[in-house]
Amino acid sequence: MSYQRSDWLADLDLLEGAVALWWAGRARHAELDGTDPGAVFSALRAVEPAGDLWAGARALRGGLWALGDCHLRLAPSVMGAETGWQSGLAFAPTPEGPALLWADPAISAYRAASVGDLLTAIDGVPAEKVLASLRLRPGSTPRQRHLFALQSLSHRDCLPGEPPLPRCLTLTDARGHDLTLAPEWRTQDPAAPPPPAVRARRIGDRTGLITVRSFACRDRTGQISDAEMARQLDAALAGLEGCDRLAIDLRGNGGGRDEQARMLATRLTGAPLVWMRHAHPAPYGGELGRFEDLILTPKATPQPSGLRLLIDAGTASTAEICAAALAALPGAALVGSPSGGAVGDPVEFRLPRSLLGVFVPVARYARPGTDAPIEGAGLVPDIEAAPGAVDLREGRDPVLDAALASFD
């Protein structure tokens, strides 16, 4: 596709106007991060895409990252030109540093690595220095940015002309021995069946664990399905009949559809619940309106006597709204580490010349009963706990352990 400088400038003009009118987090991130949209767009206008649409897309992606809002980012292209790559590796943040969480056992080069090994270098550069510089996906808080940088070692959606990186990782085991391996990047299989969004298991007679990995539940065909989410939730709760103490694991849940999160909440509360406290811009953009409360109608009979909501930096967006609402219930508590701090109701704007899409978050949210913003702050747990590298090595989950202990 031919893409000239005049096209680039026309797209930037439209996007800068949309950001000025609709970006609900602009004042928040100016305060937190010192972001300056005017300076970002001025720098973007100096870019010369040289007839290459994807060079412009890469520059735009970096400019949006610099504005510091998780939901202000490129959308998938209408041409489906991105290529999804997976390395077969996953890492988790720990107090000791990034640690190996999983390695695909089918890849022989990974068999010398062990869960809990620390990531110490990326392409020969200290790992933390590289992770601080990776700018592939915006994050709303430093902890979320760090997590997204780690996730980019597992999965990347690369634009045309962009290879999956890195090419070399150095891991250090518990004895201080180094292992160097090359990630085996493989294209993602779009036909692979989606994993369940909801899992459940009993822990004793009265206690149950429900893990909700996403509020974008998909059916067997890969389509996002509210009906499938309802089916999975009902099956999970049916298997926990008689449990009046529930731990809801929202760690790593990056959000999804508000409708699916409400399905979970209505099944856990027996009284009307303030679901979200939100403010949107006036029609045609402009100043944000006052906060309003959205009340949720309950379905649970009876309501659990104890509720623990497990959160971490990967808990974001709709999952944070859900956790904040349920934490207000009697007998409820947040357990884990601070959440991602990224909520915003993103709306897609399609640029007229390139047809690139950009998500712009158009709403702000506060924790129910307060005017304290969730964006850029997140939810602070009532009970703090986080896994270390030794916990990963030995298969322990101190967050779940703390949640269960708090029931007694």
Overview of the molecule:
With 408 residues, the chain is of the alpha+beta class. It has 3 domains: 2-75, no CATH class; 83-187, Pdz3 Domain (Roll); 198-406, 2-enoyl-CoA Hydratase, Chain A, domain 1 (Alpha-Beta Complex), CATH 3.90.226. Helix content is 27%, strand content 23%. The chain has 11 helices and 23 strands. The chain has helices at 5-22, 26-33, 37-45, 53-65, 127-133, 142-151, 226-238, 258-266, 318-326, 389-394, 398-406, and strands at residues 2-3, 51-52, 73-75, 83-86, 89-92, 99-103, 118-122, 125-126, 155-158, 169-172, 178-181, 186-187, 198-202, 207-212, 245-249, 273-279, 292-296, 306-311, 332-336, 346-350, 357-361, 364-366, 383-384. The strands form 7 sheets. The chain has a 6-stranded mixed beta sheet with strand order 13-14-15-18-19-23, with helices on both faces. The mean pLDDT is 94.
